[in-house]
Design goal:
The chain is about 75% helix and about 0% strand. It is an all-alpha fold and about 200 residues long. It has one domain: Tetracycline Repressor, domain 2.
Length: about 200
């Protein structure tokens, strides 16, 4: 039952907002009483904390599965982006923005976990891209991964009021193209254009 609560709460928080989703909403969605939720979580803050960690683990598992598919590093990034687009398809505002604003302690822990996962994933991707001649060999992998992290999480931390123009999927696509163009070789740019046309 605990995992079901975490799964449903995580989905609802990501898609409808950490502030707007109530314990009543979650209990109704699951068809259980609020008392059952409180059996596992003392308050909403505890549930937010646990569900963000739960979602982080699920995302990490999906990314690990994706990186084992044997895609070239540029296509791999687009496949991961596609997964995130699906994950946030109903989200009108960035869940990261809301988490930072309303649950700063949980946000701080999440950022630490996310940096570790993001750093490992991006650095591995860049290293393979260099080996395959898709990224320039002279780039500083650590610096580039930090730049990209700042761009991606800058998008999620900000509140864009024109949601028609600045939806998360569009901004993430722009960030990925910007990142790839900054480090790609001519060979890599050809693959980038193919992926942009496809997606």
């Amino acid at each position: 039952m605990k995992d079901e609560i975490l799964n449903k709460a995580g989905f609802m928080f990501l898609n409808y907002g950490f502030k707007s989703v109530t314990m009543d909403d979650i209990s109704k969605e699951l068809g259980i009483s609020k008392k059952t939720i409180y059996k596992y979580f003392g308050n909403k803050e505890e549930l937010v904390d646990a569900s963000t960690e739960y979602v982080h683990v699920q995302i990490n598992n999906i990314i690990t599965t994706m990186t084992s598919q044997g895609f070239d590093p540029i296509k791999e990034n687009f496949e991961i982006k596609k997964m995130f687009k699906e994950l946030f398809k109903n989200s009108k505002t960035s869940p990261m923005y809301q988490l930072k604003k309303y649950y700063p302690k949980t946000y701080a822990k999440l950022i630490e976990r996310e940096w570790c996962m993001f750093s490992d994933c991006v650095q591995s991707n860049i290293q393979r891209g260099i080996e395959q001649g898709l990224y320039r060999k002279e780039i500083d992998i650590d610096v580039i991964s930090r730049f990209y992290f700042s761009i991606v999480f800058g998008i999620h931390e900000a509140e864009y009021h024109d949601h028609e123009k600045y939806d998360l999927a569009h901004l993430e696509s722009e960030a990925l193209e910007y990142h790839t163009r900054a480090i790609a070789t001519e060979k890599g740019l050809k693959i980038l254009v193919e992926q942009l046309n496809k997606h």
